[in-house]
Amino acid sequence: MTSAQAVSVTAFLATLPRGLRVFIAGSGGEPLAVLAAMPPRPDLTLLALPIAGVNRTDLPAIAPVEAAFMTPELRPGLADGRVRFLPLHYSEADAWLRGPARADMAIFRCAAPRDGGVSLALAHDFVPALAAVGAALVAVVDPGLPDVPDGIRLPLDRLHALVDGPSDSPILPAEVPGSAMQAMARHVAGLVRDGETVQLGIGAAANAVLGALRDHRRLRYHAGMISDGVPALLDAGALESATTGIALGSQALYDRLAREPRIAFRPVSETHDAARLAAIPRFIAINAAVEVDLFGQVNSEMIEGRQISAQGGVADFVRGARRSAGGRAVIALLSSGRGGTVTRIVPRLAPGTPVSITRADIDVVVTEHGVAELRHADIDRRAERLIAIAAPQFRDRLAEEWAAMRRAM
């Protein structure tokens, strides 16, 4: 079916063989035009890493799914066996796609063809892994996507099919941080020194920290994804360059990417490789969490026994930062939730809650109430420092819980 001429979605789906294991790109690479037209295909297996709140397709309604991320749309399938959930780090998800996943095909969005190839546009993360192992590549063309100056291009003669399938790109609105989030962001920014390389995720906390870094200088950015806050830092003169795998944000961000050579797009094998990260001097990994216990253990993927997310790249970045010369691993979260009725600094993680990051892997925990330095601190000093940055209404109870836990050790 290989051709430089794009075929229709209907024509492509009519040729899709039975029994394939098909990778469906996530984030801004999700091939919505194909998925919307695809009838139920229980003979297929879909391999996916969708992002909650961004990729909303009900994949289990199409075919059985194997996923290394969790979203609300996948959870019913997890309950009834239509979804298999693999708890993988981002770097391990890349390794899984290169081998154990046994992917036959990858379907993803791309920019309009140019000079004998196509740009992966908004999502350069996992498709290169599938290309490396010889999977059939199906590029769904959307002329509205940016052909980024510094990113991954696939030659047309490597494609199994070129499909005409424009669709809307996911828009991730920038949340306005509240006063507590702004206070937390100022504490985090105080840990970052000029000339360092910073990693952040996306969301309200990441945007708040990016805003708080505007007065820094000579920063570099290396992360799995970027949002609108990164170009804003470039414009403010705080940031010199950025390396990422994914872009999620506003249409203004996507338009900017088509003409921004200072933002480089790379695959997961480069953005999340611990050895590469460790080789970056003064690499500061800043990540969010659901909760942190008094031992310093971090849960970043489950609430009240419900799998709401996945490990993602947090552990990759934490490990890279810990090995970086002058690097540090920072966890940033608000001290309470649900209007101040629930503490997010907890005595211990609840039974059955996965430890996303071990207590030995964290350097610093930050809330709106301050900074807790944990590296090289003994267990009592760790608990004391974490209680000091907990919401004031919970500190006495946390101290009592720690005293009881300590007596039992």
UniProtKB/TrEMBL annotation:
Acetyl-CoA hydrolase/transferase C-terminal domain boundaries: 249-401
Pfam families named among the record's database cross-references: AcetylCoA_hyd_C (PF13336)
Gene Ontology MF terms: transferase activity
Keyword terms: Transferase
Domain of life the protein comes from: Bacteria
Protein known as: 4-hydroxybutyrate coenzyme A transferase
Organism: Falsiroseomonas oleicola
